[in-house]
Design goal:
Layout lengths: L1 E2 L13 E2 L6 H11 L1 H7 L10 E5 L2 E2 L16 E5 L5
Parallel strand pairs: 1-5
Antiparallel strand pairs: 1-2, 3-4, 3-5
Helix pairs in contact: 1-2
Length: about 90
């Protein structure tokens, strides 16, 4: 299950959580793009990877952008997408 940030919920029917299929984060992201194309266009880059302005958290642990696609997902895992914080 993936938690969607409030500012993106309009692109998935207002849902706070969506169910996705796959054993790897990359498969979940591909499923997200199929189920919710408008959301996918806002959270994925041209290659289908998580957009660089976003962060994914799995069970409370921030996933490294360079490793995110190959991260395994198990039943019951909690995944969240957040807008990356920036500043100076």
């Amino acid at each position: 299950m993936l938690q969607i940030p409030r500012q993106l919920r309009a692109y998935c029917g207002g849902r706070a959580f969506i169910e996705l299929e796959g054993e790897l984060v990359s498969a979940l992201l591909a499923d997200l793009a199929v189920q919710f194309p408008e959301l996918g266009s806002r959270v994925l880059d041209a290659s289908g990877a998580l957009a660089p302005h976003l962060v994914m958290i799995q069970n409370g642990v921030v996933l490294r952008a360079s490793e995110i696609a190959g991260v395994r997902v198990s039943a019951g895992d909690e995944l969240r997408i957040f807008t990356a914080a920036s500043g100076g």
